[in-house]
Amino acid sequence: MSEILLKTYINVKKTKEMRTATTNKQSLYIHSEIIERVTQFTYLGNIIDNTGGNEADIKARIRKAQAAFSALNKLWHLTTCSTQTKLRI
Fold this sequence. Notes:
This protein has 89 residues and is of the alpha+beta class. It is built from two helices and six strands.
């Protein structure tokens, strides 16, 4: 039986670590380099934090919605566009 060996390379500069529910304070090393520890990161548009909560993600989504509605608010007050056009936008 033949074996396939895959060589992988981990880019230490792009790699970050986040720990949850642990008291271990030791640094993580890869290729003799310390991996940066973070308290939150964004993955597929969701904010993940080390507390396990989703408050930061909810606040970010609310801010994005407020920005979008703020931009549309200017459009709603225009008198040059018809209501039908405004509804299509």
